[in-house]
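Obj: model holo form, ligand = zinc ion.
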Amino acid sequence: MTELEQFIAAHEAALRAGVMFGLLAVFFVLERALPRRVQKITAAHAAGNLFLGLLNGVMVRLIVPGGLAALALFNAGGGVLGLIALPDWAAFLVSIILLDFVLYWHHRAFHEIPLLWRLHGAHHSDRNLHVTSALRFHPGEALVSTAIKAAAVWLIGAPAVAVIFFEILLNGASLFNHANWRLGRIDGLLQKLIVTPDMHRLHHSRAPRESRMNYGFFLSVWDRLFASYQNQPRQAHHHIDLGLHEAENDNVLAALWHPFNR
Ligand SMILES: [Zn+2]
Ligand SMILES: [Zn+2]
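Output (holo structure tokens):
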């Protein structure tokens, strides 16, 4: 590892937390300056989502002390990439693209497998989508998700720096595409490459036909490739019904209890 890579690996947790809180603040301001929908977000609701994010972050850290980057360091030279002699930059790029591909199917599985949908429903029970919705995941989903990501990192043989970059990218992309941010025509242009707020808002529609579209987190190519892409909802974004019919209460306790609802 180069000195820079060693520095990044040693300060991985601080780097990730710094970028996350920085982007959270930036998108919080932007969605107030340029709101896409008129929504009433209470401080208690935003605090509940933040609490879930912190709870999951601490829990995952306790289970995997050094994070997925430590696993990648331990597995250095292993996995599929260990069998192919690729230059470092190519191994980095291939790892990011493959991890994003895995995350697409990971998200799709959470919708298509009933037991996993019970966990992921806690994320979809948010009735007003904004930047803190990006942190609203049930701890059960965070656990399964960590296991899937760990397996992917191991099998791919992703370099530690790529894993750290991917996790920062994933958090940043999630904060970006949950923000209630009006991008105008830029949204449509960006959709050609990445998942945008309009694209992900459609995924949070109450209409099952729409919530089973737009599974991507970062690159939009996977939805196009696997026939799950829809660029606009049937209702206008201002009127689109968000949330779940079966979860009228979207506070933090309701989110934690969500998988146990009948
Ligand atoms: Zn979903
Ligand atoms: Zn979402």
